[in-house]
Structures are given as structure tokens and as C-alpha cells.
């Protein structure tokens, strides 16, 4: 007989059965647990299922249950195994033994009462000196035979029976269930979790309810085990709690509905989501330590990123920063405000690199810190993966950045970089993918300025899609006599003209009290194939000159032209990696080719050397 001791409950798997998964085809298993005399049917949690799939746990394996919970399924008690340890193996697990003829039930005082219908016992961790049957394990009174289960299931010994409702006013203590133990089969749960992020309030017209407007918003919840789940608040509950729930605070949440997650609409890594409606209860937990409730990071290899494109699922990245681009900005279409952005390049042990775009404060503060450090490690949580340039990564509002993090994974990455990574030949994770060859992205191979130029008879119509090419070029000169910039409306970037004490915009017919200057200039670039004049607009010109147009204007308009000319000469003969757009434009009934800089960044000579070594190696193979 397999019995328990003071270290926990020891049981043997008498059977393992595969179940149909509820999401994404992941394996799910049920099993029979036996102590050598009696048995009970149980379900294995996701993290234990992976160990079954790997062959670590199988029929005949002896387990020590370290954490489990009891659920009521169709009136029968069914344990959910959350964690366990493998302690051995038996060749022939004992089958459940029916009661002998004439045997009597144990006295009522010797049995643990069964849970009330619709209730659930809290998750239990095995502690030293505790267990079933007073011996620290699971005895025969805890695991009933099939006949006993039909008469009324008995919970595993050591599991407390439900007390008063955790939302009873004035209750001093509440039993919280781990988020990882939630499942659609039980609604009598209570969790204690921190609001990691809160989305915007949304509404839609519900045609099934006579066109009534339905409100909702979503939050990401994290518990003390580091498990995250998305919860959506609906209708009146959403309106009541939208201004109440605050990011970073901890709440008791109960009486919600757990359902399989739809990967098309959720960004949180969990097989389930929670729906909260008017029957749900939420209450702030003021005594909880929110600092202990941090989501566990699950780093993915850069080489596997192409598999995440086109999905809403967010990923965590850990990499060595091999390049940091200059700080730039883009203008939001909805309100015309400037949003800071910066590109960095990460590499890891897979030998692949990826470009990560940082936005807002991350681009300004974290980007500046990364720029000052020699090849730091960076951890970025909850990034979105796109197919731009084959594959690329972008941060979002909830992304968290940690520079030179600690931990075993970080130590391994730093060791790899110091030993071989710093001299290894690295390639982009999106190299060779079909999306990298589309016109919207940079070409995987370098082109030349001469290859860009086309004769008039080779030009396509003005309505044809533009073509793009990636070019390494040196800026030869910027003509100081050109206009360089124009006076623009601060709201729509259209040209304005001085009118009285203001600035008149012909586009919207409004007069503005102030204007901003925006670059629109020509610059001559050259490479080993020749030279070409390219149009450079505001965002790219800011990166090229390192100054805004409003800062350059006093130099250009000053009586002494030397400081202005010296500023332009400072950028001459600097080397850049350009993404050049080529399109046809009709002028006076004649087609002309227009070349403009879509994006640019300074040449990283370390990355460029690696690229050239890779080309030489490939050509000699």
C-alpha cells in the first residue's frame, strides 16, 4: 500500500487517459490515483500535463501530491492536481478494491463531510506534519472505492470544507484559489489578484437586445503564483467598476464565469478567460502585498518569432542589444501629437537577430540608457510580433523593460555572448520569409543607387505601387541654398502663410496663432555605384541633422551664414543604411522618377562586418 508520511501524500497512478483539449489542441489528461487499497479519478493541471507528454509521469508512477484542489463535477468530488513530485515507479498499480461482504461503513465521526453542492474546497499545499488519516498521507478513508463514490464523494483528507461565503460582510479571512486552478467546470471560486493593466471602456450596439448599447472593458489579473488571466467586465458591472479598479491594486474577485480563451481576441497567455457580470463580486484587498504579484516571464527564442506573426498573443524577449538606433518620432493621426520611437536590435543564443521598436517613454528613457551601455542585456515583456521586414517586434503600453536583469537565463545569455556570440555570424530572424520580400518592407539584400535609377520608358504609371530598396550610402552634401523647411499647421502639417497676427491654412480655412517648421529637403547620397539626389522629409531629416527645423531656422536666417553652413557640413560623409522609396510622379504631363528616404539609421560597423563575413562565407561554400 502506498501511504503518506510527514512529507506529503504518496499515491500511484493506476491509469492515464487522454482527454480532448478545450483550446489550441494542447494535451489534457485524467488519471486514476490509488493508495494501494482505494482509488479516485483526478484531472491533471496544464503544467502537469506537459510532464505526462514528456513521459516523466505515466501509469505506475508514484507521486507525492504537493498541491491540489477539489472540484465538484456532476455531483462527484474530483481532485485537480496542480503540482506533484515523482518519487518512484511500481510495476503493477493496485486496482480499487470493493468493500468486503458484510463490511460496514466507518462511523460518521470518522468521515469527512462531503462538500455541499455548488461549492469547492480551496487549493491545498502539502506541509510537513500534515496529511491524510492522521499519518501525513492519504488513507483509505480519504480515497473511496467506486461504490463509495456513488453513495457520495468524500474529499481528500486534509482539505478544509467550505466555510461561510468569502463575501459575507465582516468576514475576517478569505480562501483564495490560484488562478492556474480555474476551470469552466466550477463557478464557486474566489481569487485574490492584482490588476496588472486595465483597458479602455468599449461599447457596441446589441441587436439581440433591441439595439441597446452594451459596455465592457478588460483587465489583466496576476496572482501570487505569477499566473495571469484576462477578465472582462460587462454591462452595469463595467460601468460601476471602470473608475474603481486601479492598476497595481489587489482585489478579491468571485462568482465569474471561466471559459476557454479565444486567441483572436486576447493577448494574455492563459488557456482561459473570465467573464464578470452583474452576479460577480469585486472587493479591494487592502492588506495584500501587491509587489509579490508579478507575472512570470516566459521568454521565447528569437528564432521562433516568425511563428507568432499575425497573432494577438504577446511574447516576452530576452536578448543582447547589438545596436541602438537614434531617437525619432511619428505624428499620431488622431490628435497630431508627436510620439517618440527608437529601434534597437536584439540577439540571442539562436544566432538570430530582430529589430524591436520602443515607443514613448521607453524610447526616450530606456533607449538613452541602452545607448550608453556596451551590449547590455534587456528583458522586454509583452511585445507584439509583426511580419514587417519578415518579422519585427514592437512594444505596447503595458510592456515592461528591464536592463541587465538577473537570473539563470540572463546568466546563460551573457555567458554565450562573452564566449562566442560577440564574434558569431548572426542573421535576421525574418531573412528569407515571404513577408520580407513584399514591397512594404525592406529588401533582404542590399541594392545600389545605380540599380534604383530607371529610364523614362521603364517607369510605371503614377498610380503604381512604390518600390523599396535597402541601400548602404554616404551623404555627400546638402545644398545650403535650398529652402530646407516650410511653415506648417501644427494640427495637420499642411502649409500655412502669414496673415495678420496669425497663420492661415488653406487646407481647412482656419487661422492659427502659431506655426511649426517641418523639413522637406534634398540631399545627395553616393555609394560605389554612383550618386543620386534623394528627398528627405521631417522625421528622417531630424535623425540626419540631429536638430528640429525650428532649431535650424535661427541659424539659417541669421546674417552670418557660416554657423548654418558648418552645421550642414558636420553630417557630410557620414554613412547610413537607407530604406529608399521609388515611385513615378507626373509633372506637366511627363512621368518622372522620385526617390525619397522612407527610413534611415546609422551604419553599425560591427553588424556590417558580420554581414560581410557571412556573405564571404556563403560565396566560398
UniProtKB/TrEMBL annotation:
Main localization (coarse): nucleus
GO molecular function: DNA binding; zinc ion binding
GO cellular component, one term: nucleus
Keyword DNA-binding: yes
Ranges where the record places region Disordered: 96-139, 152-172
Key word DNA damage present: yes
Biased composition (Low complexity): 96-113
Domain named Replication protein A 70 kDa DNA-binding subunit B/D first OB fold: residues: 178-282
InterPro entries: Euk_RPA1_DBD_C, NA-bd_OB-fold, Rep_factor-A_C, Rep_factor-A_N, REPA_OB_2, Rfa1, RFA1B/D_OB_1st
Residue ranges with Gly residues bias: 130-139
Keywords assigned: DNA damage, DNA recombination, DNA repair, DNA replication, DNA-binding, Metal-binding, Nucleus, Zinc, Zinc-finger
Any single biological process term in GO: DNA replication
Residues in Replication protein A OB domain copies: 313-404
Record-annotated Replication factor-A protein 1 N-terminal domain positions: 23-87
Residues covered by the Replication factor A C-terminal domain: 468-612
Pfam families, sorted: DUF223, Rep-A_N, Rep_fac-A_C, REPA_OB_2
UniProt-annotated location(s): Nucleus
Subunit structure: Heterotrimer of RPA1, RPA2 and RPA3 (canonical replication protein A complex).
Family indicated by similarity: Belongs to the replication factor A protein 1 family.
Function according to Swiss-Prot or TrEMBL: Component of the replication protein A complex (RPA) required for DNA recombination, repair and replication. The activity of RPA is mediated by single-stranded DNA binding and protein interactions. Probably involved in repair of double-strand DNA breaks (DSBs) induced by genotoxic stresses.
Name listed for the protein in its UniProt record: Replication protein A subunit
Organism: Elliptochloris bilobata
